[in-house]
Amino acid sequence: MAMTTSHMPRPSFYNSQGIRFSQKPSWFRAQPRTKLNPSVNIKASAGVRKEDIVIVGAGIAGLATAVSLRRLGIGSVVLEQAASLRTGGTSLTLFKNGWRVLDAIGVADTLRGQFLEIQGMAVNSEDGRELRSFKFKDEDQTQEVRAVERRILLETLANELPPETVRFSSKLGKIQSSENGETLLQLTNGTTLLAKIVIGCDGIRSPIAKWMGFSEPKYAGYSAFRGLGVYPDGQPFAANVNYIYGRGLRAGYVPVSPTKVYWFICYNSPSSPGPKITDPALLRKQAKELVNNWPEELIRLIDLSPDETISKTLLVDRWLWPGLSPPASTGKVVLVGDAWHPMTPNLGQGACCALEDSVILTKKLANAIKS
């Protein structure tokens, strides 16, 4: 339901535009930024490596930013805390804004050849009644929609970078500002870097965002099972997004390639659903129980999903309020992607916005460097 002014709480303080709001609720209250000694003087030494641009995180946002910078002749270092690319997860949906970015950085055609273009969407009730269906091109002739395997997207981006760009097993331990505007990054492996520019692409639970004063992302009130069904002899579905809605529950599936189909189940759940479950057999069992009386093809998709593709996650986001939330940059430290604006997957824009962030920031950085 859309919010109207009658639903707004009574005002008692002002934002920077002079608009009054009530006492800030805890779910969007920013955390105080770590206070640092403003006079600290950090100089490069034998134990400190100087870098021009350091990107923290080798996910979609981090790798796309590094590739964008390299396309303009600007080098960077990418720090990744894992020992290798984190290629887990299933698929993500890219709309035309995401594909425009991939075109701009030169990898779109490599990906297009591997994934089906989705033609439209069908929305059904749990008993099989069609509630709505449409073609994407009928809504927007320029629209382009494909479900892309996260693993392949990351590997494609990484392959555009020189091998030494991404430094694995490099977890950020501490971040500190210097008096000359540079930033000291201390890693848990003992490495210390002094960076002119730091780009935080370190995901939903970003330590850099916390250091900049952003609040923790908040639980959205529902969780999701996700997986990737594999049909070695060819999957049987038309290239459409298929949504199924029930009471407090929704599910969907979308073909990714001629042999793979991404599926998800979202359901309302308490904010404390208990300990994290990692056993694939138990995850599969719980997912099937949620849709036990739903269309058979959904059950079969779950059965055909390899263990490593099945996951369950609590969905979170962070609302950004103009004049109230911290800015996306502090000095020469800036956030990109989920580190800045985590969003729930039902928007279908998480990866697209991360890609857009990367090229917009790159353009601004390139102009600043040249000037």
Automatic annotation (TrEMBL):
Keyword Oxidoreductase carried by entry: yes
Superkingdom in the source lineage: Eukaryota
GO function terms (MF aspect): FAD binding; monooxygenase activity
InterPro entries xref list: FAD-bd, FAD/NAD-bd_sf, MOase
FAD-binding domain ranges (all copies): 52-370
Alphabetic keyword roster: Monooxygenase, Oxidoreductase
The keyword Oxidoreductase is assigned to this record: yes
Family note: Belongs to the 3-hydroxybenzoate 6-hydroxylase family.
Protein name: FAD-binding domain-containing protein
